[in-house]
Amino acid sequence: MTATYTPWIGVDWGTTHRRGYALDALGTCTTEASDDQGALTTRGRHAESLAAWLPALHAPADCPVVMSGMVGSAFGWQEAPYLGPEVPLEALPQHLVHIGGDPHRSIVPGYCVRDVAGQPDVMRGEETQLLGAVAMGLRNGWFVLPGTHSKWVLLHDGRIQQLRTYMTGELFALLSTNGTLAAASQTAQPASTAPLWSQPAFADGVAAGAPGALAHQLFACRARVVTGTMPASQALAYLSGLLIGSELQDVLQDLGNAGSNPFHLIGSPALAEAYQVAARQLGSALTLLSPRDVILSGFHYIQTHKA
Length: 307
Fold this sequence. Notes:
By secondary structure, the protein is of the alpha/beta class. Helix content is 34%, strand content 21%.
């Protein structure tokens, strides 16, 4: 049986994982695959790793491949310089970095955006999802992309106006497995149990996450347990709510006129539900966008508009 010809491949290549999409000329995904061969794991052998992976996508060895994410970082295949906010998302196809000058192996650059005080913030990978949203007609408003490092991005007519990163996911992972908060919670909640935010403690954490000294607020999680104010079994739910609530409230209290813009959320169902529940509690709302839909849209736009 002859394999179906695949015009090109889009790869979301993160630090620890990667997901590839085989797309036809119309941008329809014909095959997809994922594995744990992130940019850090494959350091120094990205070319060999990609070549060995292409058969899983039913792709010929010489097919065009467009990659986004940490594959373009300092420890990636080839470093792609950050773009500034003066470059609209729709111009990304003209700024691809060709590996070794080969137009069949391209990396999408990330963005560096500075705030009014000159403090830089950066992203890699999220720009392709945001481009996809723009290509779908969503050119304005706030976009939150929750994860290990949650990104908040304000777009105006397809251009990045603000970028904020919150280490919410990383902090939760660290605090729930190491140190005094982990000890207070006794054991981490198994993944098979009800979501953390289904517990009332999550709502208490969201309410406590007002802008301020987060280091002080975090210790309250332990204090609530050791004083008997909160059962140890609810500590992780409270911690999750506290971190997400702190992130949301920091953004909401500093929006000003930008607060009238719509809010869109690009994330996995579990994370999306947690953020949506917290946002509703704080009097806001987040419209959910499928991460798969937006990145496919972004890759298709790049392939059809590249120089």
